[in-house]
Amino acid sequence: MKARAFTCVCLFTVVAAGAYATRAGHLSQWWNVLANNGPLLDMPPRLELGEQQYGTIVISPFRVSNRGRAELTIDHIRSTCSCSGLERVDGDHFVRVEKLKIPPEGGVDLVVRMVVNGRVGGPHRSAISFDTNDAQHPSARLEVDIQKVAAGLQTSPSCVELGEVVLGQERRQTIELRDSAIGSRTIKQVSTSDADQIAVKLLPVETDHGNPDDHSFGVLKGRVEVVFQPKRLGPVNERIEVRLDDERSSATVIPVRGSVAAPVQVSPNPLVLPRQSDAGPIFEGRCVCRSTQGKPIKVRVESIPEGLSVKAEPHESNPRVCFVRVECLPSLMLPTSQHGELTVSLKVWVGDTASILPIRVMYQRERSPQ
Prior knowledge:
By secondary structure, this protein is mostly beta strands. The chain has two helices and 28 strands. The chain has helices spanning about 1-25, 25-35, and strands at about 40, 45-50, 50-55, 55-65, 70-80, 85-90, 95, 100, 105-115, 125-135, 135-145, 150, 155, 160-165, 170-180, 185-190, 200-205, 220-230, 235-245, 250-260, 265, 270-275, 285-290, 295-305, 310-315, 320-330, 340-350, 355-365. A five-stranded antiparallel beta sheet has the order 1-4-9-6-7, with no helix packed on it. The protein has a five-stranded mixed beta sheet with strand order 2-11-10-5-8, with no helix packed on it. Strands 13-15-18-17 form a four-stranded antiparallel beta sheet, with no helix packed on it. A hairpin with a 6-residue loop joins strand 25 and strand 26. The longest helix is centred in the N-terminal third of the chain and has 23 residues, at about 1-25. It is flat, with a radius of gyration of 30 Å. The N and C termini lie far apart (about 80 Å).
């Protein structure tokens, strides 16, 4: 009798828990954990950041977990606003996340860094989306909400978008600084995270009292001239910081984004020789030199390492393209030269501007059968 009563109580408890879980929307998640052998994403749907001052950087930590029984993959991460991104903390630095792999029952601590902009007095919202291999959540979305943008230093534009800049060119832009806070504040300092490529200068302005009844627009405090002179190839992800003489306010950050391309691009680079084919190894390869500015180019072989034969051949009908043929000589394939790397130097003219362009040649001697 007691056993029957105990069984009834247990059955009632299971049914009641199942009904509650169904109404609360947790039943499918519990079932996935118990029955599914795949990954299962667990993360907050929204980050509430309250009231934040215009122009500041907000850092909001959160955790992404895998409650499933297989590895969880997260990729194709994208944001609705260039002012926010998904990152990991690495010591004193933040590293942008492009892809994640989380083991079963594991988790990763992440942060959202967001530059607060938008109309003062109103909300500011953005979202970060990504794809997963979780069958229940093939795509996920994290909402980031700032309920109110408080008065502060406003910049126009809020971000310096360089686009693609060719090495040797220069890009200039002027940023307007307006303060919508009540009270008198002045610009104390303007600095950049990469003084080698980005120069900033605070320009004087005439007195502008603005509209005292409209704090969303603010009083003009200054203009900043930004001069970008690229020195390195690759992506640009830097910042400009503007500090006021008010110790209570943090630095206003202006992101600087873009990329630097060479005047002439080479493909493939490096070139691997010999190449394998059904007929045996091929000791010759071809690189294509192409102008990134749409201008005619002239290519001359400047230096050739021992063991290679190199020849530049202009395109017959397209002056913006030139071919470079590279051949491994038999001396490079001797038993004493197992593998290595050589560099061919080209001198390239785009109009009247000349530059040195390297081509890396990776070679490996074919191993003899044992």
